[in-house]
């Protein structure tokens, strides 16, 4: 909208309505500062989480957010001494929600990359999106060399496809499927002997197809996930790093991982250096 020296009546009315709306209970207003002290003083912290990416973030049977990230966010709010307000975000709008003050921070399975670090601050890793070679316990695989002659399924053009293609011997029979669901079905049906898949798929197979005795053979790639903050919110980032260290050392983070992934937690990956 272009503002002239004199604002017309309709423009003035629109501005007045906008100002009134901003004062309504529950309206999202720009935060004064996202520091631990300010958040504790106001008594509320707004954390952006995914609700379409279980078990990191999903919806439970009561239509409420649930998952690894949600449990971490609850612990964080308790530690900082504030009421938690979960704000659902999506992959594409995570950064816009953060930069426009709709949330104080993100706990949203956010991979730490050089490109993203130009826009936001990242905490140290609090989780990892890890891809593995998965296969039944009866199949002896421990290194890439053991994949010679093995039928291995992956989702076409995925992270695991790229990682597997880079290390697999030429004799490996890589079978590419349209998505994770069809890749997972390929090992359930016996179409392939192993798959390249994420910790999420491994959790699903462990819970729903325990009879297959699928296990992690070796890691293809571990993507470090960090909490994200606005560039000026270094104090909140530093506090969150201490929080992550505490829950890692006291075992609380491991319990959350066990709950949602049905397996012991691997050591967190190091902070990426750019």
What can you tell me about this protein's structure?
This protein has 274 residues and is an alpha/beta fold. It has two domains: 28-129 and 224-261, Periplasmic binding protein-like II (D-Maltodextrin-Binding Protein, domain 2); 130-222, D-Maltodextrin-Binding Protein, domain 2. The protein is 34% helix and 24% strand. It has nine helices and ten strands. It has helices at 9-22, 36-42, 68-80, 94-99, 159-167, 180-188, 199-208, 234-249, 252-261; strands at 44-50, 58-59, 65-66, 83-89, 105-106, 121-136, 151-155, 173-177, 194-198, 214-229. Strands 8-7-9-6-10 form a five-stranded mixed sheet, with helices on both faces. A three-stranded parallel sheet has the order 4-1-5. Strands 2-3 form a two-stranded antiparallel sheet. Strand 2 and strand 3 form a beta hairpin. It is elongated and about 60 Å long. Mean pLDDT is 88; it is low at 1-31.
Reported for the largest beta sheet, the result is: 5 strands, mixed
Q: Got a strand count?
A: 10
Order of helices and strands: HHEEEHEHEEEHEHEHEHH
As for the number of domains, it is 2
Termini separation comes to: 40 Å
What would you say about this model in short?
The protein has helices at residues 9-22, 36-42, 68-80, 94-99, 159-167, 180-188, 199-208, 234-249, 252-261; strands at residues 44-50, 58-59, 65-66, 83-89, 105-106, 121-136, 151-155, 173-177, 194-198, 214-229. With 274 residues, it is an alpha/beta fold.
Q: Which short descriptors sum up this protein?
A:
10 strands; 274 residues; five-stranded mixed beta sheet; disordered N terminus; 2 domains; D-Maltodextrin-Binding Protein, domain 2; alpha/beta; three-stranded parallel beta sheet; elongated
């Amino acid at each position: 909208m272009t503002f002239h020296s004199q604002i017309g009546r309709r423009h003035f009315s629109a501005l007045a309505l906008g100002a009134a709306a901003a004062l309504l209970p529950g309206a999202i207003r720009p935060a004064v500062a996202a520091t631990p002290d300010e958040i504790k003083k106001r008594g509320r912290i707004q954390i952006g989480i995914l609700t379409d990416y279980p078990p990191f973030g999903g919806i439970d049977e009561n239509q409420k957010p649930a998952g690894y990230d949600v449990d971490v966010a609850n612990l964080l709010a308790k530690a900082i001494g504030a009421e938690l307000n979960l704000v659902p975000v999506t992959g594409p709008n995570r950064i816009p929600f953060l930069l426009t003050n709709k949330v104080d921070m993100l706990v949203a399975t956010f991979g730490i990359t050089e490109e993203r670090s130009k826009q936001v601050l990242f905490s140290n890793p609090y989780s990892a999106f890890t891809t593995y070679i998965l296969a039944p316990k009866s199949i002896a695989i421990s290194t890439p060399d053991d994949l010679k002659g093995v039928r291995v399924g992956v989702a076409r053009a995925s992270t695991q496809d790229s990682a597997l293609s880079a290390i697999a011997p030429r004799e490996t029979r890589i079978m590419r499927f349209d998505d994770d669901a069809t890749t997972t079905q390929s090992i359930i049906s016996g179409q392939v002997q192993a798959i390249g898949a994420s910790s999420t798929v491994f959790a699903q197979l462990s819970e729903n197809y325990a009879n297959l005795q699928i296990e992690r053979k070796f890691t293809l790639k571990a993507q470090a996930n960090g909490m994200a903050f606005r560039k000026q919110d270094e104090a909140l980032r530093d506090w969150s790093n201490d929080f992550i260290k505490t829950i890692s050392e006291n075992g609380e983070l491991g319990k959350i991982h066990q709950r949602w992934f049905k397996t012991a937690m691997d050591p967190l990956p190091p902070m990426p250096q750019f």
